Fold each of these.
Amino acid sequence: MARPFVRRALKRAGVLPPRVPRDPEAARPVPPPRIFLPGEAEDAGPVDFRALFGRSAPVELEIGTGKGRFLMEAAAARPDRDFLGIEIEREYALLVTMRAAKRGLANLRVESLDGKEFVKRRLRPGALAVLHVYFPDPWPKKRHWKRRLFDAAFATAAAFALEPGGLLRVASDHPGYWSVIAEVLAAEPLLVPIAEAETGPWSSGTNYELKFAASGRPVFKAIFRRR
């Protein structure tokens, strides 16, 4: 659930629908993952980015946009590219959409979808120039590990979604989860790690990294290239 300040900002803007009271006695079936864009049929095929953005341009995707600091700065700096943000929390997606509209970022869309299933089921091979995944939820309890984003199936889907030479950029602050991420991506034959000497120092540009850097917490980062 989004933090209170997010709900307050959306209420002030008039874009937040009222909460629906939950019936504690009612059974709550697990809904299917959200993978379809607004207006799409539930049997829609791969996403047509040309139709989505109204032009043909390289596409970068971020899974887990949060408050959107990285995504908005990247879209503003690269008007020649289109940026799609996937955020599972609907209120955060609405907040970033509102902020992007105020900045006039026509090359940026944010949707409340399941990033893992979206990459696995909705992207054509070679659809993305760059895939960004910064500070995904580590789900530290062992019984929740199945909810983690990174596993072998996701790594393969991500690799196929990248164009040849496309990049997967990833960062985490959780040492245990980072070891899993590094192992999974290193085992994917379509992905090649880029040496730090080639990438040079770089930042994800997210609020998380700024906060961790200020507190002295380590941040683990890597870039992989699609063969």
Note: The chain has a mean pLDDT of 91.
Amino acid sequence: MWVGRGQTESVEWELTLTGREGQQLTLSYEELLSLSDVETTGGFFSSVGVVYGPYTVRGIRLETLLDLVGGITPSDVLLVAASDGYSAVFDYRQLHGEIDTFETGTLRLVPQGAIEFLLIVEQDGAPLAESDGKPLRLAVTSPDGLLTEGHWWVKWVNHLEVRTLTQANGAAR
């Protein structure tokens, strides 16, 4: 729990979770903070090679949130949407660690370490800054301090939706 950790101001924000069967749950920022949290490290680099982090981050496991609306299976994808209109789709394998990871100093591709997707609210002991995605940002973390490409780190997340792939044409429904 987030007892006394960096959160001093009230944040007006809601996260909507939608499961594969259409079930929805909307959580306030305060309700999100009541969920079990994780502290670990994560960092990324931009398309031009600028490195950000690794940071010490705190957040909620994506798996914890998705379990609230039925979880995610190998035949599902996750749509992550943000308040600025940006969205990204991740498949089950990616969400369970099958993405490229890179060494911090050299950006050399290294074997996948233990990685985990979190919805973070704190970075380096402080609430996220607006420019870093305040109040909620999707992040890829690694206890090894490995980096990922920046497109995995979605700012201003306000909707997570599990969709099932149809076997016939591979399109999400």
Note: The first strand starts at residue 14 and ends at 18.
Amino acid sequence: MLAVPVYNMQGVQTGELPVDPAVLGGRVRPQLIKQAVVAFLDHRRQDSARTKRRSDVAGSTRKLYRQKGTGNARAGMIRTPVRRGGGRAFGKRVPRAVAAFPKKMRRLARNSAVLARIQANDVIIIDGLRCTEPKTKVVASMFSTLGIHNGCVLALHEHDDCVYRSGRNIARTELRLVDELNAYEVMLRPKLLFTRPAFERLTGQPSARRDAGEHK
């Protein structure tokens, strides 16, 4: 059984939350995490590159001059890649084939990444995170008291416009809904923060399931 420290907004540890590794896949799968990161970055590419090949360039297919007798080097049509203004020999085209990454694999990779961060003592749970007004100073002060100076990922259980606007301008900081987390974002920053309801939802704690039932 693992334990994740729980802090309040003032940086004081108020307890620990036990976590069974079985709910996060039981063990860390480095190869699956790498596959998820590569797939995420691959899907994020814009895929808008398009260059003209020989068949796309305007120009005749006629041979420029006869093969022998002119004293010039042999030449074919004007659209050849070796001539100025010709098409590219191996021009890029879209759409590009992208490897599929099923939902169950994405979820297992995310859980495996979270388990790896817990084992490395890089996960912190924030209990009672709230902002009365959007002020960057509030969230920045909380990070400072927690000893977070090189960036983090903060996972929320639901969208909070006040918290989001308070933390969005802090350098190297990402705010995400826990349901939208992926393995790449989990491994992106030195620290991973969860609100308590977000962590309970991720690990399937009874309180999180009860809250979800009440919202329905």
Note: Strands lie at 2-7, 13-19, 123-126, 152-156, 173-177, 191-195.
